[in-house]
Amino acid sequence: MVHWRRIQLLLFFWICSSSCSSSSDFVQENFIECFNSTTYSKHSLPVSDVVFSNESASFSSLLKHSIRNLRFLSTSSPKPLFLVTPFHESHVQATIVCSKENDLQVRVLSGGHDYEGLSYLSSSQAPFIVIDLINLRSIDINIETETASVETGATLGELYYRIAKKSPIHGFPAGSCPTVGVGGHISGGGFGTLFRKYGLAADNVIDAKIVDFNGRIMDRNTMGEDLFWAIRGGGGASFGVILSWKLKLVSLPSIVTTFNVQRTLNQGGTHLFLKWQEIAHKLDQDLFLHVTTKVIDQKMTKTTSKTLSLSFTSLFLGSIDTLIPLMDTHFPELGLKRYQCTEMNWIQSVLFFADFSTKSPLEILMQRLPSISSSFIAKSDYVTSPISQSGLEGLWAKLLENENSELIFTPYGGKMSQISELETPFPHRKGSIFGVQYLATWDDSNENERHLRWIREVYSYMEPYVSMAPRGTYLNYRDLDLGRNYGRNTSYEEAKVWGLKYFKGNFERLVKVKTKFDPLNFFWNEQSIPLLYNCEDEARICEVYSDLDSANVQER
């Protein structure tokens, strides 16, 4: 009897496996046929150069090429049914149309730096595809109009390089990691060394092109101001596939100055930080001064115990002669000397903050792969009042528990305090004195749980010292511990748990925009903006109109 039951179970699993395999094959065939036949995709390239099934020989190498967090490269990580690498906007249109026709979820990958891997992973049981925009990365710099037209597969490094090739006195206010893709970075806000002077990357977007759930391409004029507002800080992946940005370039002096002064805890690092958090957000907006921490191994010190090194690193939009008096007035405790400062042009400062030599050839910015790849986990916070000395000392103790830990403290103020928190979905502006990123990196996959546990403990410890009601966090430092969508019908109330942390009062408007422009919730992921109504709620029957001009949800 037991033997017969075992046979029945084996037969059941074999039937299920065969059925799933057949279903998968059927979907794959239908998708390819659809992609081939749609008028959108009829270009000279054969479909085999654009669409790669998970059974193709080059699939794994292509997918791994764009994944930056090795934590998500395990064999147990879910794999997409297809990897699509468009060479033309029409390929994106065809992918959306055919995915919708075959009930495939879509993930969109620009640079591959999503902190939770949502640009190439899915926790849903439904089959999904990944659109990798690596081939859509053209950049056109127009110095006369001081604008840049950038396809969203380009990286920040490629953008900076192209600007520098056209002008030594123009730049763009975005992040310092050159391998980050402009698609996700700008749609989530995007800050860097220039943001106290010029605001976020998203604040300097003047137009965009996006493919909606029906495969239509819209620009700012045709999408309207609501959607244009939403994709500049609300995360573009909730609303469509952003194809390109039109950016406003900013003017910069021919000479800028950088410095990096390091102090350990034994050298008064804590007291320097106490002063820094009082003044950094009040400094002239031409002066960006952030702090990073690093655990120094005992081999690097004269003592037998570990300590913490604090690096005070700065970009000043001006000369050393102007910088030194500013520092002497506002931060004399740091004791900045002329020999610690270096004058350079802006593009050299990009190299400096990317940890390259300022004498490196600019072409190094064109490299899409990071020099070092590892597993990592990160979280973020916003601080609205200075942290006490005892609070800092407790934080330092936590850092010393993990030799692979790092904190990055980014000062706000300046232009960021002058822009309304309603201007874009990114709300962390006036009132935030600095932001914090908690980070742990490691190479051994057996260490995953240890580092995840550590960073959660640090995040819990910091609760009394950071913003509250809500406790703010940065969308581009995606964190699924805050909450997630477990299906397409996550309610507004359920999603508020994490939505208010990212967007504060702007979350409600984002939900309304989502409901209007993606009423079927086609662009879903574990932290996508939800619809205003749950259409499967028994207490409510919804009618969804997908026509762009009348898209809404009616309750009856």
TrEMBL record:
Span of the signal peptide: 1-22
UniProt key word Phosphoprotein: no
InterPro entries given in the database record: BBE (IPR012951), FAD-bd_PCMH (IPR016166), Oxid_FAD_bind_N (IPR006094)
One Pfam family linked to the record: BBE
GO-annotated biological processes: cannabinoid biosynthetic process
Recorded superkingdom: Eukaryota
Domain FAD-binding PCMH-type: 76-252
Entry's Gene Ontology molecular function annotations: FAD binding; oxidoreductase activity
Cofactor(s) for this UniProt protein: FAD
Record key words, sorted: Disulfide bond, FAD, Flavoprotein, Glycoprotein, Signal
Family: Belongs to the oxygen-dependent FAD-linked oxidoreductase family.
Name of this protein: Berberine bridge enzyme-like 15
